[in-house]
Structure to design on (968 residues):
């Protein structure tokens, strides 16, 4: 089944999600069907089915258990969810309508789901669309994403891929509201592929040049920069990018505009948060520094139309350290909010990690036993999603 | 409401104003409550304070001023006493860096120049052999121009050059033994200033040297710096304050470069339709030398759609016109080139057009220089993702094409999978590394082999053959011999590329080296210089695609003057 959830909300805007996760590629390396003529070194993926599950669970969470963290937007509530995934084993999702097995993400299946999603999305001028993809991707002339049956047709290997770059451009002329794209795939550039394989997959929607651009907002966040790779932990875990995306949406970004009553998560907020959370992961995981580091990239155009509207202030992952490290155990590391709330780590020889609401704080370190001078930073603004600081103990 | 006046006392930045310009630098300011909710926002200029209206019940506000670099300054002010209030932002780091102060707001907050110290020593001597070349577009041909700075500066943390550039496209090329060769676009039509400082970021993609460019248009450049970093809220605060973007565009005849900044903002945001189309037409018609003017007009027409427009100009012609005049001055223009090419490629269905390939090449070769366009490559008309280091006469590859790099990386940490090509099935990494080292050693600097007929994909086995087959590649002995000849300086000109599966293409070695030689340094005849721009555009790439085979096309039109490099080390304190 593709359409997992739909609310008939005639005359009012809603948010429409289309999620695609492709981990099983029968015609690529390690697949169980005839190997594609040119598999391009692509193999099976274990992360996409798990990643899409995590994302769908996050979107459904408040509907299944009110009050839990998940999708919230009173101005454009969740109106429909469609999903496809390809994995060696069926993937089941718990929806408000019960447990549903997801349909395979073949090229035709993706096209059918996209067409239906687009129809729903065009139903109201203030609708918000979300298109999520996790699987293999290649950048040639544009960014191409591969469906499950990629390589099935020996003579036309690209017929079962699609051009997401052109799809984004085409949708700008069809959808008046906002569309968010989260593309969790590699963006390796290979002109060799373009030339020798005649890579030219169709977009999901042809670009109609007769129409003008009507979109108000478009945000496309790519898991990695052009020419770079996206990663996922081995062993069937949620990919780095999807982890960062879910974390960002779970209250680790948002701005309350002048006169506003909610903390709004728009394209700039979420793309910035994803990038910083990926950096934070690299900071916390020394193995990921250097070349293995993943840096997301984004396209943000138009006027902001928030994806989420949160009632409470976003949180910040604080990572407070003190240098030189051999003095850490002598100090109390603390944060004192402008409202007077104080949190501290007292004389422990480790990094102080804590999650706090955004806002203004005094951040410092003091040695209760004396001997070392205090270190104080006044009027520090903790801006989501992360606040890493190393206090310097002088001399 | 309580009126809060926010002054900006960054006096050292006042010298960064272009003669005759009406506006100084503005920076976005926000008044926030203790939770970080935005109460109000605006922009403070050097001569014009921001006037912020604060709700009456507010006891205290935090006023935050943001630089394009992301660095911010915050001041707390109590409003308990009632009545209006004011505050002033100053910065010691600016005053301690007289001639470099203009660049500090654009550099990473951790950059040593941002420290309020005048005695910084970043060991700049290690970059003394970094070379610079200046390129200008003349009659559609990139020519190396003598580098004669009006003035130079140097301290322990940065170098700076002042140049005066005529109205055409300009590129500054830099490179060194550890500095990848890249180009940075300079705005023509007046004075330009370029600052170099060691990198200030831990991002593995950042380059050893940061390059910051100004043409003394503080207002327009600040707006573009925010756009380049996707800081739309800050850009909105600037642009809405004083209707900055609109004014910049409106004054296009006085300052077309500032006008394209206004156009870029309007196309990035949602109000591109509010700017009359004839403004774009006037800009592209009257300032053809400015590539950005044509591309903003092109994208404006494309967004209107063919069904609603009555323009006499074709978007495709405008795209061509833009590329004939060089590369966009600003990075925002590269994104619009992509948008235009992606749209027109679908419309024209001519995927093999050299125009689209040029845009694709630029996209894949992009580097970072803030709002200025920057790309990797060895020739101004040939952006490439392949990176070169070394002196101009002794280049060597630093980075291979990504697919091959991916194969190597795939043997890295085993705890992750890649959502894209890994090419693991093609060759073992150990073998590939060995192959790579052989390839580099044997094939440098310009030793293409010939693959007759259609292009061939070659894995390890073929790669081994590359090193052992005299027929397909020169022997080590003969290569060594050639390396002693002056031709070795033309390595980057080689059409040899290593991709996911090793690929070799081109002509016989002897022919290719000769061809490379011509392409790099032959002095283009006067007749060729007068070739119409469009023709020169088509021949700008040394490759043309016919069916599945890539062939060398005519040599690119580049005039280079050897031994005309400018060394950073020649700039003295």
């Amino acid at each position: 089944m593709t359409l997992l959830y739909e609310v008939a909300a005639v005359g009012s805007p809603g948010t429409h999600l289309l999620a695609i996760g492709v981990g099983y590629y029968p015609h690529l390396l390690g697949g169980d069907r005839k190997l594609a003529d040119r598999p391009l070194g692509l193999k099976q993926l274990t992360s996409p089915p798990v990643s899409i599950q995590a994302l769908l669970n996050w979107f459904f969470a408040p509907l299944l258990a009110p009050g839990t963290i998940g999708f919230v937007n009173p101005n454009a509530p969740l109106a429909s969810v469609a999903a496809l995934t390809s994995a060696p084993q069926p993937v089941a999702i718990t929806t408000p309508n019960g447990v549903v097995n997801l349909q395979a993400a073949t090229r035709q299946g993706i096209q059918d789901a996209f067409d239906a999603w687009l129809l729903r999305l065009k139903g109201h001028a203030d609708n918000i669309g979300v298109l999520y993809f996790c699987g293999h991707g290649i950048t040639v002339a544009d960014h191409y994403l591969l469906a499950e049956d990629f390589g099935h047709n020996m003579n036309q290997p690209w017929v079962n891929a699609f051009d997401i770059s052109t799809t984004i451009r085409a949708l700008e002329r069809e959808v008046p509201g906002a569309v968010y794209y989260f593309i969790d795939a590699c963006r390796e550039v290979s002109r060799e592929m373009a030339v020798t394989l005649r890579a030219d997959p169709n977009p999901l929607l042809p670009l109609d040049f007769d129409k003008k651009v009507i979109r108000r907002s478009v945000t496309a966040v790519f898991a990695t920069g052009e020419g770079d790779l996206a990663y996922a932990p081995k062993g069937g875990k949620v990919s780095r990018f999807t982890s960062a995306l879910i974390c960002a949406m779970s209250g680790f970004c948002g701005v309350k505009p002048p006169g506003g009553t909610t903390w709004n998560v728009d394209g700039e907020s979420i793309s910035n948060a994803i990038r910083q959370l990926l950096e934070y992961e690299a900071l916390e995981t020394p193995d990921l520094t250097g070349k293995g580091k993943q840096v997301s990239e984004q396209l943000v155009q138009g006027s902001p139309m928030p994806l989420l509207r949160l009632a409470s202030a976003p949180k910040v992952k604080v990572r407070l350290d003190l240098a030189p490290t051999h003095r850490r155990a002598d100090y109390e590391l603390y944060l004192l909010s402008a409202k007077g709330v104080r949190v501290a780590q007292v004389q422990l020889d480790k990094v102080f990690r804590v999650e706090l609401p955004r806002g203004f704080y005094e951040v410092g370190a003091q040695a209760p036993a004396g001997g070392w001078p205090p270190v104080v930073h006044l009027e520090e603004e903790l801006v989501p999603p992360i606040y890493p600081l190393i206090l310097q103990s002088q001399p | 409401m309580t009126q809060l006046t926010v002054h900006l006392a960054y006096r050292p930045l006042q010298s960064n104003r272009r003669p005759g310009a009406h506006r100084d630098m503005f920076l976005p300011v926000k008044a926030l409550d203790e939770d970080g909710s935005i109460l109000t926002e605006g922009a403070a200029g050097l001569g014009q304070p921001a006037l912020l209206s604060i709700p009456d019940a507010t006891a205290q506000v935090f006023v935050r001023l943001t630089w394009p670099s992301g660095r911010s300054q915050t001041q707390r002010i109590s409003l308990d006493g009632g009545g209006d209030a004011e505050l002033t932002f100053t910065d010691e780091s600016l005053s301690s860096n007289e001639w470099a102060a203009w660049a500090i707001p654009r550099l990473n907050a951790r950059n040593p120049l941002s420290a309020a110290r005048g005695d910084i020593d970043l060991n700049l001597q290690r970059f003394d052999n970094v070379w610079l070349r200046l390129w200008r577009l003349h009659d559609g041909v990139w020519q190396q121009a003598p580098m004669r700075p009006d003035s130079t500066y140097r301290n322990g943390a940065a170098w700076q050059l002042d140049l005066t550039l005529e109205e055409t496209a300009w590129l500054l090329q830099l490179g060194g033994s550890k500095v990848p060769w890249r180009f940075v676009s300079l705005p023509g039509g007046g004075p330009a200033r370029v600052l170099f400082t060691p990198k200030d970021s831990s991002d593995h993609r950042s380059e050893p040297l940061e390059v910051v460019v100004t043409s003394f248009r503080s207002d327009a450049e600040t707006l573009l710096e925010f756009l380049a970093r996707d800081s739309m809220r800050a850009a909105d605060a600037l642009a809405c304050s004083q209707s900055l973007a609109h004014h910049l565009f409106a004054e296009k005849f006085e300052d077309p470069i500032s006008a394209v900044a206004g156009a870029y903002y309007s196309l990035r945001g949602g109000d591109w339709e509010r700017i009359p189309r004839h403004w774009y037409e006037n800009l592209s018609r009257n300032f053809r030398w400015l590539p950005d003017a044509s591309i903003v007009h092109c994208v404006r027409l494309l967004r209107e759609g063919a069904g609603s427009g009555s323009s006499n100009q074709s978007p495709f012609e405008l795209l061509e016109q833009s590329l004939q005049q060089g590369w966009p001055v600003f990075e925002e223009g590269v994104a619009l080139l992509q948008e235009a090419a992606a749209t027109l490629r679908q419309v024209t269905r001519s995927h093999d057009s050299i125009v689209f390939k040029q845009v694709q090449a630029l996209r894949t070769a992009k580097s970072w220089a803030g709002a200025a366009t920057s790309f990797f490559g060895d020739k101004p008309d040939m952006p490439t993702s392949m990176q070169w280091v070394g002196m101009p006469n002794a280049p060597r590859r630093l980075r291979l094409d990504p697919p091959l790099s991916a194969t190597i990386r795939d043997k890295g940490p085993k705890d992750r999978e890649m959502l894209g090509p890994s090419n693991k099935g093609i060759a073992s990494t150990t073998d590939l590394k060995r192959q790579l080292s052989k390839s580099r050693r044997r094939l440098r600097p310009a030793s293409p082999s010939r693959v007759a007929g259609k292009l061939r994909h070659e894995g390890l086995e073929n790669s081994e053959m590359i090193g052992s087959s005299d027929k397909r590649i020169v022997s080590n002995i003969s290569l060594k011999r050639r390396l002693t000849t002056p031709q070795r300086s033309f390595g980057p000109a080689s059409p040899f590329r290593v991709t996911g599966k090793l690929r070799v293409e081109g002509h016989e070695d002897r022919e290719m080296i000769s061809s490379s030689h011509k392409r790099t340094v032959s002095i283009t005849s006067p007749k060729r210089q007068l070739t119409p721009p469009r023709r020169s555009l088509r021949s700008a790439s040394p490759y043309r695609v016919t069916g599945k085979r890539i062939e060398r096309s005519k040599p690119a039109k580049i005039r280079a003057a050897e031994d005309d490099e400018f060394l950073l080390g020649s700039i003295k304190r």
Notes: Chain B touches chain A through 80 residues (CB under 8 Å).
